[in-house]
Amino acid sequence: MEVLKDFLLFYGGLFAITNPIGAVPVFIAVTRNLSPEKRKEIARKTSTTVMVTLLVFALVGEWIFKFFGASTDAFSIAGGIILFRMSLEMLSGKLSSVKISEEEEHISEEAVTLEEVAIIPLAIPLLSGPGAITTTMLYMAKSSTMIEKSIVLLVVVAIGITVWIILSAANRIHQKLGTIGIKVMTRMMGLILASMAVQMVINGVKGAFNI
């Protein structure tokens, strides 16, 4: 039961950070001139890239900490600040500029291959941006047992599958929710993200000062 609780907590947090619902309008915009089959192919490639990116950083995060001499507490504080900035922009119903810039949002207009569209800007940095990478690395670094580490990896896989499902049904989701509905969902994700960010900073300060 504790394992399921940990899984759901991390899944909910990572879902709020990646915010695949909020990415639906961007996905529709960058694939508007493509056939349904190619849209599905891009959705698959995007979800695979998100999954691989987060898995890689989850697995090599410990060595990155050691290489740069950064403690998990310092990383927690820095990550919390990044997430809080993202949450403020999401609370206003906008995609965070920490995740994607205006230039990156329109890069697909010059993209030559499906791989370019799927990887940039959809997978990186729109879905698996600095916030998602930081959080995944931090959760993995603070996991002390193989079960806890396995939960982190399983959540990343689950997020990848979720991204694929949502992007594959992007048109239907947009029709059901509409622009206002998606903005409401984005604000809700922003509120969850803000609470996560504050907690990360609190945990980092406690650990750094042994409070």
TrEMBL record:
It is found in: Cell membrane. The chain crosses the membrane at residues 7-30, 42-60, 118-139, 151-170, 190-209. The keyword Nucleotide-binding does not apply. Keywords: Cell membrane, Membrane, Transmembrane, Transmembrane helix. It comes from the Archaea. The keyword Membrane applies. It is a multi-pass membrane protein. InterPro entries: Multi_antbiot-R_MarC. Signal peptide: none annotated. GO terms for cellular component: plasma membrane. Belongs to the UPF0056 (MarC) family. This is UPF0056 membrane protein. It comes from Pyrococcus furiosus (strain ATCC 43587 / DSM 3638 / JCM 8422 / Vc1).
